[in-house]
Design brief:
- The chain is mainly beta and 259 residues long.
- The chain has a single domain, classed as Jelly Rolls, CATH 2.60.120.
- It is 10% helix and 32% strand.
- The chain has two helices and 17 strands.
- The protein has helices at residues 17-26, 243-257, and strands at residues 42-47, 52-53, 71-72, 82-83, 92-98, 101-106, 114-115, 127-135, 142-145, 155-159, 163-167, 171-174, 182-188, 193-197, 200-205, 216-217, 229-237.
- The strands form four sheets. Strands 1, 5, 6, 8, 13, 14, 15 and 17 form an eight-stranded antiparallel beta sheet that branches.
- Helix 1 (17-26) packs across helix 2.
Length: 259
């Protein structure tokens, strides 16, 4: 440096908390990769890239595109696995098709659905669910999440009126639905419930007071309305998430799936 020459120092940009989480997830040598396993009271977690099987006993891993999935392992460690006894009624595996990640496609005509056993005990509100999914058919009810007992439901779906719809005895609806890949977070907490989509709260209000008795993915509790769409990931927490955890979870999902 020449004597007397002025030096301009560039102050590095300060990352927001959410940007920092996304950066750490994408980094080749991250200081820490956050995982949903860090969420307190996590009750179930399903990712299409982990624990998918061609048999109900979950002994034959699914490895090929269009394999029918008859077992989807719960990654939370709680053993709330999803199964299907009939091969044709299992959704099909799609490999590396969403930002390099797998997803499962459910077809209405084939009545494809996956169910857990009874949750023991049933989950009392507040309960938070997240879903990374894409409805395909806009003319029918697309049930992403429900239960097999009609009196113990925490439901999330897209209905034909272009509505995102949460239900636990009362409908909480928002007319913003589409057929894109979306990340939804849903809080089931009686009159203090909300729906978030891709990092933004899109509705608040009352969903009712029902518990969640089982986990059903791909159909309603009456086995009448089936999803025609794709699901990459689902998680269920028996608690209301704080703002910091919501930021971490949404940043994790956005980076992972390119949303």
């Amino acid at each position: 440096m020449i004597k007397g020459e002025m030096v301009t120092r560039v102050k590095p940009n300060k990352l927001t908390r959410r940007q920092e989480y996304r950066h750490n997830f994408k980094s080749l040598n991250p200081p820490h990769i956050w995982s949903p396993l860090e969420i307190t009271n996590l009750k179930a977690w399903f990712e299409a890239g982990l624990g998918v099987f061609k048999d109900q006993a979950m002994t034959i891993p699914a490895t090929a595109t269009n394999d029918h999935i008859r077992g989807w392992q719960d990654q939370s460690g709680n053993g709330n696995h999803l199964t299907q006894p009939t091969e044709s009624q299992g959704p099909t595996l799609q490999l590396a098709a969403l930002n390099g990640r797998n997803f499962l496609t459910f077809t209405t005509a084939a009545s494809q659905v996956l169910d857990s056993a009874d949750l023991s005990p049933a989950l009392t509100q507040p309960t938070t669910a997240w879903i990374v999914w894409k409805p395909i058919d806009i003319s029918t009810y697309g049930f992403a999440l429900d239960a097999t007992t009609t009196s113990k439901r925490n439901t999330f779906l897209r209905n034909p009126a272009d509505v995102w719809d949460a239900y636990a005895g009362v409908e909480l609806k928002n007319i913003t639905s589409d057929t894109n890949w979306n990340m939804h977070l849903i809080l089931f907490n009686t009159t203090n419930s909300w729906i978030r989509m891709n990092g933004t709260t899109i509705d608040t209000g009352n969903v009712g007071t029902m518990q969640l008795g089982q986990i059903r993915v791909g159909a309603d509790s009456n086995s009448i309305r089936y999803l025609w769409g794709s699901i990459a990931e689902i998680g269920i927490v028996n608690a209301e998430l704080d703002a910091t955890t919501i930021d971490k979870l949404e940043a994790y999902l956005q980076a992972k799936y390119g949303l």
